[in-house]
Each structure stands twice: as structure tokens, then as C-alpha cells.
Amino acid sequence: MSTHSSTRGQPRDFNGRVVLITGAGSGVGLECARVFAAQGAKLLLVGRSADKLEAAAAELAETRAQTAICAGDVTDSAFATTAMEAAQEAFAAPVEVLINNAGVIVRRDAVNTSDDEWRAVMQTNVDGVFYLSRAFAQQLVYDGAIVNVSSTCGVVGAAGLAAYCTSKGALNQLTRTMA
Questions:
Q1: Of 86, 164, 165, 166, which residue is the catalytic one?
Q2: Which of 24, 84, 113, 159 has the smallest C-beta neighbourhood within 10 Å, fewest atoms?
Q3: pTM for the whole structure
Q4: Confidence band for 1, pLDDT divided at 50, 70 and 90
């Protein structure tokens, strides 16, 4: 059980909390890492590129943030357990906040989306979120939180984004179901 407490409706205190962020090597994931670092969180940066993660960790180290990296593929269900174990090893504590940010987009309509493109989007945007969320929940952190980064495309379709919109709609339903 977490040693931190929160009061419903009040901002959470992230100082010293372990936060795992997928897609943390750039973009939205790196910006999330910057925000959590400024609040004193301990960060496990997850992504496919060890080079990008190392660069992000080096940037965050300048702010004195405690960081560790774990390079791997969120579409591999075993990697989810590996990531949770990496956080435990790096910080001697379980992940308390999971930011599922990793995502891919294919800009094609349904007719022109290949099987491989469809699978790549679904595996990253849906399967990867499920695997990491399940591994997070299995840690039995009672005061934890999962944040799934979605898109308006998950609610409103957009021409030329068949796989992406479908994946974000599935992500929204997974979020509601797990909540």
C-alpha cells in the first residue's frame, strides 16, 4: 500500500512518487516527464529508443530529477512486467502513476491501410496500454493512478485515419472499463 495519501478533489503530491511514462523520449511524453520532474517525482522513462531516453534523462538530470530508463517495446506483453520491475529496482518502490502515452499513427483511409499498418497501430495504441495497465494493477498500488493519452479522434472519426481513430476509440472504452 502507498505511503502517500490524497484527499479527493485536492491536487496530488507527486514528490517522491514513482511515475512511469511511455513514449518518454520526445513529444508529449517528454513534456509529461518535465512536469513531473518539476514536482519531484521519480521517473522511469520508457520508449523504444535507448538513445532518445538517455538524452531525455540527461536533460532531466539537469533539474536534479531522479530518472531511470527502460527501453523496449510496449507491444510485447512481457515488457510490461519488465518495466514495472525496472522501476522497483531503480527506486525501491512500485510505480504509483502510469502515463500511457506511447502511440503511433497511420495516415490512411480504411481501403488503403495494410494489415501490417493496422496491426502496428492496434498493438501500440491498444495492446500496449492494456499490457502496462494490467501489470500496473497487479502491483496492488491502492493510491495509484493511470492516465491514458487519447485523442478527439477516439470520439469523432477523421477522414484518412481509420486505424488511429479506431485505436483511440478502443482506448477510450478500455479506460472506462478499467476505471
A1: 164
A2: 159
A3: 0.91
A4: very low
